[in-house]
Each structure stands twice: as C-alpha cells, then as structure tokens.
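Work through this:
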Amino acid sequence: MPVAGQRNPEEVGVILRRWLEDVLHEERVEVTDLVVPQSSGFSNETFLFDASWSDAPGGSGRFVLRAQPVDYGLFPHIDVIAQQFETMRLLGACSDVPVPRTRWAEPTGAVLGQPFFVMDRLDGQVPPDSPPYAMDGWVMDLEAADRRTLFESGIDALARINRVDWRANGFDHLDRPEHGPTGPVQLRGYFDHYRNWALADLAHPVLEDAWAQLEAAWPDDGHRLELTWGDARPGNQMFADLACVGVFDWEMAAIANAESDLGWWNFMQRFHTEGIGVALPDGFLTRDETVLRWEQQVGRSVEHLDFYERLAAFHFCLIMVMMSKNMHRLDPDNWDAGFALNNPGITVLQSLFAS
C-alpha cells in the first residue's frame, strides 16, 4: 500500500528528468518506466524508474526515489535526508551492511515540494506484507531448509548493523537530544512524545496501561549505546539466492540498545504468525534460535529482550493508531472505527504483557 496522496507519476517523471539534467550537467536525460510499487511504502513516497543520459559506461541505471510524504505521516518527525539517505550513505562507506548505493539528494523541497533522495535499485525478492509472507508467496514456496537459510541471512545482516561503530563513523545525526540525553532517557522521551502525539484525541486504555507498565520497567541500560535499524524485519530486506542483498527503510534508525532491533524482529514475526492466526511455519527460526544466532553474531548476550519485545508491540500499535487516523481522513465512509483499538498488533501486545 503506497503512501496516500502520492503525486502523479507522469508529472514526477517530467520534473525528475529536468532535475537530473541539472544534477548530472547533461543536456538530455531520459526517464522511463516510472512506477509506484503497490506492496509497500506506508511512511514515504516511493517511485521506481530507469534513467539514461550517456552511452558511456555508468551513463544509465535503475533507481528508486524516496520522498518525504506530503501528508498522512506515521511518525511525529520524518527527515528522509538525515535519517535515511545519510544513514545508508555512511553504512555503504564504512560497513558490510548490504545497503543500496545512494546517488543524489534534494534536501530543500524546491523540486517536488518535499525533500527526496535517489538510490540504486537492487535485484531480488522482498518478503511481502500482503499477503503475509508466513501465509503465501515465494517464501512459503521454498523448502523449509531454504527458509531457514534465508532467515539466518536476515539475522546476520541485522547483526552487522548492530556491530557498526557509530561513534567512529559519524552517525551522530541519529541522536535526538530534544528528547533527552543519549540512551534510555532519550528513548523514553521519544516514545512519550510519540504517544502523546498519536493518542492526542483518542482514548486507548490498552496502550495507556502498556505505557505505564513500560515506564515502570524501563531498563537502566545506558552502557548499551549501539546503532539500531529500527524497522528490523524480513519485509525490509531483499534476498537473492537465499542471501540478504539489501536492507531498506531507515526512518526508525536511532542510537539505543540494539536489543530493541531484536525485539522488533521477534515481535514482527509473532505479528505475522500468532497475530493473524498462523502457526510458525517449518523453517522459520523460533524465538530462541533467533536470539542465539543474534548473540553469536553480535558477540554478547541479551539482557532486556522481554522489555524490548513489549516496547516493539507498543510502538507498532502506535503506528496502527496513525494508520487508522489516515484511513479515516482518506475514506471516512469505509473507515473501521474499531481498528485502532482492536487489530492483530493489539492481540500480540496483550499476549506479551500478560506473559
């Protein structure tokens, strides 16, 4: 499902061609096959396109444009240039994390009305959200042993992110001092801000109770300041020959305890199985197997994983609240008023907080 209110692709193609001619100092750039993918893109506008500008090697390519949404945001603050473009650029320069090559950025909003960046388009397959990859699609068409290999590669890619020395490689742009000092205080401040923003006009007893429990149990883990991806899940990875060849969607990247990434990964697996009434398929790693592989790859043991799985559930349900609000604004006649209060994410959240 693309972002609501996306621009007309044909108009974008014309604007993009002119912009690339200026950026590349070329008299003529051809932009072709510009499409909006239909299976992803909840929080950013996404366009896929081909471009050519020279017969010389490197004078053409297949690209992805990610633009800051004009409206209907899921997060209280989005900065596609600092949060996503800069993070991927640095990862490409300093690590073996498989991120697309970043090409060009337009930070002013003068071209499309919102900032955007362009990166290379990779070849491979992404586990789909619709239908959920644990129910149908190419992942379920694999043999169980191949699914295990696939998900092990995904966990290994996650661990490579968490091992990056963010201080030595210039990831300070991910710090959020407006929410407090780096570490647990800042993370708690961010989620308090997000909660107040998302629930401003909605009474949500389940989430308010969950927040009270999280605040009471917040770990004092300031000794764990690591690079976190944020939206750590197979649906944001691309695979080829059962290996992870791409890691996408960095709008939730932060400096925090990397167990938050593992907690999000585990929660999302429960969401895509237990949350929709599907048993864990053969070949999917169990929670214990996932934790063990992550610990082996990162080189340390988890300390507060139960907390971070609960925080992931709370976070996800805030996103569901914002999705519900966006649906109401887009199509009020068909809006499900109960979606924000009762959805598969809430089901998993209640299960986690009851355990």
